[in-house]
Amino acid sequence: MDLKCTLTVEEVLRRPLFQDALVVAGDKGLNRSVRWVHILETSNFDLLIHGEEMILTTGIAFQSNLSSFVSYIEKLVHQNASCLCIELGTHFNSVPEEMIEAANRYRFPLIIFPHTVRFVDITQDLHSLIINKHHEILKDLERISREFHRLTLSSNGVTNVLKLLHSSTLAQVIYLPVKKQAQFVPALPAHEQKKMMKFISDRLEEIPENHPNAETYQWKYENNTMIVQPAGALGKPWAYVVMVLDQEPEQYDYLILDSATLSISQDLLRNRYIEERKLYTENLWIDDLIHLRIKDEEEIKSLVGSGFKKLNEASYRVCLIEFYRSDEHRWNEAKEGADSVGIHLSMVIRSIFEQHSFLPLITLKKNGLVVVAIDLNTKRSSKTGLSKVFQTLQQLSKDEQNEHFRLLIGIGGSYVKLHNAYLSYREAMNALELYPCFEDNVLFFEDLGVFQLLFNLGDKKVLQSFVDSYLGPLIEHDQSKGSELLRTLKVYLDHDGSKQIAAQKLFIVRQSLYYRLEKIMELLGADFMNPEIRLALQVALRAYQILNPDKLTNRE
User: Fold this and answer.
1) Are the CB atoms for 29 and 83 separated by under 8 Å?
2) Angle at which helices 531-547 and 485-494 pack, to 10 degrees?
């Protein structure tokens, strides 16, 4: 089947309606494409044609001076028209020599009809032919797309897809997996492969790394044209598919490349999912590490393998990533459903961490993931790198418009020696516990201020006693009267005693704030703003938040 999307002028001339037509100039341009037919009886056609149209005219628009003939041809060439067909008769009885010379100069076919023809018959014939041709092409593309999909379900799926892509287009096909050897279908001599690979490698930087589904790229290579499309998912390209064509690419070439690339992407994603499950199984020991069930360094060494020394000396942080339903309740579906979400999220996260020079050791934890993020880039702080990781993750989630769940992330402090991972894990858990206070989806333990100290007071009774001694009267008053003196005190102190800002944050008028402050002074004493007492009150408020994280927030 001829699967070109367009006709050529030469093919059109074989149609019965053109049996009397004569090519008087531009016969070297008969390979020009014809996508449509347009009847044009005006010289002002800049906005009337789009390119690759066969122009039919009676010549009524031509002026008598010779320069207008040449100008008409040049405008058609500039607009990328396919050819010009003129019916000789009342308005135009001969073709000027200047017009013929211009057509030959631009290799622009100039065709005449010696007798009267019905333009409507020509447009109907060619438009029907073009539309039917497009219909056949779409049917064939649908068939090939189904075959691409079927082949990815077999062994050597990607190779079979590449072979079908080649047989369907007769183009040289090149498959470039990231960090793996390229594959040429059909095979080429080694020197030609090397030459092409250098050309492609020099230009791959033009393709954004975080846009695997970007539009197809087109490059000129010697006398050929390359079209290139990334294959990947999860915000990262995993391979590139290249077609090398000996002519300008047509719509069919772009469509079939897109279909093949999509099938390859699905196959790569499926294999990544299988690999992720395998990695998850292999990394179950991470759960023992963070819960201090593994303490011996030799045991950790045997689990990590040959890279232990390098990883054990690198800095790392433990990140606790929990996914929640959009209704803000924890994941309550069947364990298999939660595991499936976790494995998918693990694939996404692994890809993003690796992009930002982290080695992630990941294990699944109920409604979340635990990531031991080992920093492989010593030129920037791990906090800076992780901030970029989670910005990318949140942007990806936003781009996918995923409303089913949202992520809460707690990050522990930076440590070396893997046997200290339980410390960073505990800090990540502490950070997540304070989400109701901060209402921030990403919390670093070192950003928690005095909370870091208070979390290390293991005896909650000590904290409660401290809170009662400083804030007891306010708590009792709020409980008995339904007032908000505790919140008022927190906002007032957090903003350095500014009455104006405090009133704005509490959404009350100043008179109401003055009344509340007088009541606080009455219950706590007139000296509650003295430096030592003020500091104690602020620490007590933080301790109260640890004991009652849902009662006070750091965002008013």
Assistant:
1) yes
2) 120
User: Residue 391: how many CB atoms within 10 A of its CB?
Assistant: 13
Q: What is the DSSP-derived secondary structure letter of residue 358?
A: E
d(CA 113, CA 324): 73
End of a domain among 210, 241, 268?
268
Residues 161/162/168/172 CA torsion (nearest 10 deg)? 170
Q: What is the DSSP string of 376-411?
A: --TTS-HHHHHHHHHHHHHHHHHHTT--SEEEEEEE
DSSP 83: E
Residue stretches of the chain with pLDDT short of 50: 1-3, 210, 212, 327-336, 401
- Domain harbouring 101, CATH code: 3.40.1390.20
Q: Which residues contact 52 (CB under 8 A, 6 or more apart)?
A: 6, 32, 33, 34, 35, 36, 80, 81, 82
User: What pLDDT does 18 receive?
Assistant: 94
Query: CB of 328 within 8 A of CB of 248?
Result: no
In sequence order, the β-bridge partners of residue 241 are: 175, 229
CATH of the domain at 384: 3.30.70.270
> What are the tens digits of pLDDT across the range 466-505?
888 888 889 999 899 889 999 999 899 888 889 999 899 8
SS3 516: helix
Q: Is 396 left (phi over 0), alpha (psi -120 to 50) or beta?
A: alpha
User: What confidence tens digit (pLDDT) does each residue in 224-234 have?
Assistant: 999 999 888 76
The vertex-53 CA angle with 50 and 56, nearest 5°, equals 125
Axis-axis angle for helices 251-282, 335-355 (nearest 10):
110
Pairing mode of beta strands 405-411, 316-325 = antiparallel
Q: Which of 320, 266, 295, 288 is nearest to 435 (CA)?
A: 320
Q: β-pairing, 110-113 with 83-87?
A: parallel
Domain check: are 441 and 508 in the same one? no
Cβ–Cβ < 8 Å for 276, 346: yes
Query: Which residues are bridge partners to 444 per DSSP?
Result: 411
What is the longest distance spanned by two Cα atoms in the chain? Answer: 111
Residue 321 phi, psi (nearest 5): -115, 115
**CATH number for the domain harbouring residue 161:** 3.30.450.190
Q: How far apart are CA 39 and CA 552, in angstroms?
A: 75
